[in-house]
């Protein structure tokens, strides 16, 4: 499903070059649960942004579903980002003046789903993360863990098959973090592909496979 072939990404700031990714190679099959672990600045977010078609490589090739991403049209990429991939971020990225249910519904409005279908999807997703009772709460009326569960419900409502999570438990205590990890386990058991970035070894250990990153390089960790 995901193949990185010798991918490099170079940022130039002033006269200096930063090799955020340096000939990184990676292979993730459909249905796998993979964690990417590494210190701050090792290139994890850059890798995820390329995986999610939010950014492009400078060198190398990224194949998504056997096809180089450079072959997809802009319309196809937009559809992939909104329907095929569910994004989850460390800081939740919820809209502050919208309720939990409005946040979950918003991407479905962009997808032009009919209202009845949207309500059904929002209801199911919020039930799944056990927040249906709090559907009218705004983000600032919810705990960090609850906000992240709303963010996961928002991703789930679009029914993607690939979930990309960049430090989803980074702002949470370990108990709350493990509830979040349980949700990813459940999504994995339902056949979805899960890629989680973390710098926490205990979070990384919950995946089937671990990829370690350092200085823009990626390699498999034997479990
Ligand atoms: N937009 C950017 N402009 C310049 N440098 C960047 C940018 N994004 C990331 N970098 C640099 O690339 C390297 C990898 O960053 P990142 O992928 O965010 O690492 P991680 O997520 O592992 O902390 C770091 O040295 C970072 O400073
Ligand atoms: Mg990062």
How would you describe the overall organization of this protein?
The protein has one domain: Rossmann fold, CATH 3.40.50. 35% of the residues lie in helices and 29% in strands. The chain is built from seven helices and ten strands. It has helices spanning 44-51, 74-84, 100-110, 115-128, 144-157, 174-189, 201-204, and strands spanning 2-13, 16-28, 33-37, 59-64, 67-68, 85-89, 162-166, 193-198, 209-214, 217-221. It has a six-stranded mixed beta sheet with strand order 6-7-8-3-9-10, with helices on both faces. The chain starts with a strand and ends with a strand. Bound molecules: adenosine-5'-diphosphate and magnesium ion.
What's the short version?
By secondary structure, the protein is of the alpha/beta class.
Q: What sequence of helices (H) and strands (E) makes up the elements?
A: EEEHEEHEHHHEHEHEE
Structural Rg = 17 Å
Q: Find the count of extended strands (DSSP E, 2+ residues).
A: 10
Small molecules bound in the structure, each named once = adenosine-5'-diphosphate, magnesium ion
Structural class: alpha/beta
What strand order characterises the main sheet? 6-7-8-3-9-10
């Amino acid at each position: 499903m995901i193949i990185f072939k010798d991918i490099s990404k170079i940022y130039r700031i002033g006269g200096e070059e930063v090799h955020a990714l340096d000939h990184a190679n990676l292979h993730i099959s459909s249905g796998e649960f993979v964690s990417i672990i590494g210190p701050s600045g090792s290139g994890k977010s850059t890798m995820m942004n390329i995986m999610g078609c939010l950014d492009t490589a400078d060198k190398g090739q990224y194949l998504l579903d056997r096809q180089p991403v450079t072959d997809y049209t802009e319309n196809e990429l937009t559809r992939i980002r909104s329907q095929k991939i569910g994004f989850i971020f460390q800081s939740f990225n919820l809209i502050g003046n919208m309720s939990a249910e409005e946040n979950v519904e918003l991407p479905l409005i962009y997808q032009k789903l009919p209202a009845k279908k949207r309500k059904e999807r929002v209801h199911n997703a919020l039930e799944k993360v056990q927040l249906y009772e709090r559907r009218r709460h705004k983000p600032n009326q919810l705990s960090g863990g609850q906000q992240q569960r709303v963010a996961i419900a928002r991703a789930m409502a679009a029914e993607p098959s690939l979930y990309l999570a960049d430090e989803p438990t980074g702002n949470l205590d370990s108990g709350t973090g493990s509830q979040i990890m349980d949700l990813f386990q459940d999504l994995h058991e339902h056949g979805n592909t899960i890629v989680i970035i973390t710098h926490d070894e205990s979070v990384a250990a919950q995946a089937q496979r671990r990829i370690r990153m350092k200085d823009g390089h990626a390699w498999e960790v034997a479990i």
